[in-house]
Design brief:
The chain is mainly α. It is built from three helices and no strands. Bound molecules: magnesium ion (MG).
Length: 88
């Protein structure tokens, strides 16, 4: 079983991969929320595949990590925007 530290390490690895692959999120709160929600939607799809199509939870775990990484990336971007004085 993974420890909390293992899970946070997985999220950090996914966050690093995301920055390398896609760069930062857009400085647009609706756009960045949509990107995070897309990952959450993939998480729901993976859960449905477990329940209705006999998939294993491996894909669900992967999508949950990706969603968590996008939540972290979003909070980081919001904080960068606040530091830069962007109010919306
Ligand atoms: Mg995904």
């Amino acid at each position: 079983m993974k420890t909390t530290i293992d899970v946070f390490n997985d999220i950090q690895t996914e966050l690093d991969r995301s920055f390398e692959l896609h760069g930062d999120l857009p400085a647009n709160i609706v756009g960045m929320t949509a990107i995070m929600a897309e990952e959450a939607g993939e998480c729901v799809k993976a859960a449905n595949n477990c329940v209705f199509h006999g998939a294993t939870v491996a894909e669900l775990e992967k999508e949950a990590i990706q969603t968590a990484a996008m939540c972290v990336k979003m909070v980081m971007k919001i904080n960068k925007m606040k530091v830069a004085g962007v109010k919306k």
